[in-house]
Amino acid sequence: MVDFLSQVTSDQPKRGLKCVFSGSEGVGKTSTCCYLPDPVFIVTPGEQSLGTLLNAEEIPPTPCFPVMETFPDLIEAVTQLRDSEKRPGSLVIDALDGVENLAVEHIIKTKFNGSREGFLSYGQGWSHTQDVWRAFLNLLDEIANQGTNVILLAHLEVKRFIAPDSVDYDRWQPAANKSVWALTSRWSDNIFQFSYFQHVVDGERGTRPKARGTSERVLYCTPAPSRVCKNRSGLNESYSLGQSPESAAQVLAQILNIGPGATAS
Fold first, then answer.
1. Which residues, in sequence order, are CB contacts of 216 under 8 Å at separation 6+?
2. Measured between alpha carbons, how far is residue 36 from residues 19, 65, 94, 108, 265 in Å?
3. Would you state the pLDDT for residue 212?
4. Please, which residues have CB within 8 angstroms of residue 33's CB and are 6 or more apart in sequence?
5. Closest C-alpha among 188, 189, 197, 192 to residue 218
6. φ, ψ at 103 (rounded to 5°)
7. Minimum mean pLDDT among 8-12, 220-224, 257-261: which range?
8. Region 216-221: what's the mean pLDDT?
């Protein structure tokens, strides 16, 4: 019999953080991650922002895997990274809904003989997708356990929240199927939303109020009726990220205690 009581300890192994960075297109998620400690990117079809930024010399040279055209390719790439001697500081996957699309196409091909109608019938397809998504998140756990911070970039969409104890309302949340997002949100340590500082001004002569934006970005870290966020680091509601990706990355490195020679706990 194993004596588990003798192994009880308050010490926990160090590991990388597991984060979701959400935000609208062009808010700077990709460029900010390029300035995080020792990043490597995995991108899905249609996510060309990294290449565009590199070609425009807006970001420093950043290692990136080839575009992942299939879900098995993506799993193989992450597996090879896990098994290599190289331990990057940050693994950035762009983007969450792109990985979901690859997983769905894989399930349609392998479980439903290429039939999208079969996938959608009675929710069978999403049940299979949940299984492969759990395996995907478990693989990312292994990467995080090696000390690498794992970051999933996500687009935003407005969805209706069904509130059991109040009226229903709309809110911003990462774009993903509800079953995929349920697993991902539980898996993550932090869910942050990138945005711009805004203020609302009264309309003139009875016209509708108008929103005024600025070029200064803000990071939201705590939940609110208008957004889906969380953190396990005791962070404030929001942080100013400044007007450049370098300054944004410096803020993130500071509040999350990640940087050269440091591993987030």
1. 196, 197, 240, 241, 242, 243
2. 13, 17, 15, 36, 16
3. 54
4. 21, 39, 41, 90, 92, 151, 153, 249
5. 197
6. -65, -40
7. 257-261
8. 93
DSSP string, 49-95: HHHHHHHTT-S----BPPP--SHHHHHHHHHHHHHSS---SEEEEE-
Tokens linked to 203: 């309309």
Distance CA 259, CA 254 (A): 8
Q: How many CB atoms lie within 10 A of CB 24?
A: 14
CB atoms under 10 Å from CB of 59, counted, come to 19
Q: Give pLDDT, residue 73.
A: 98
DSSP annotation of 119 reads: H
CB 189 within 8 A of CB 232: yes
Alpha-carbon span 108 to 119, nearest angstrom? 6
Place of tokens 């960075």: 21
What pLDDT does residue 1 have? Answer: 87
CB 250 within 8 Å of CB 229: no
**pLDDT band for position 202 (50/70/90)?**
low
User: pLDDT class for 233, splitting at 50, 70, 90?
Assistant: confident
Predicted confidence at residue 67, as pLDDT, reads: 96
For residue range 11-29, what is the model confidence (pLDDT) as tens digits? 777 899 999 999 998 899 9
Q: How far apart are CA 240 and CA 260, in angstroms?
A: 22
**Phi, psi of 102, deg, nearest 5:** -65, -40
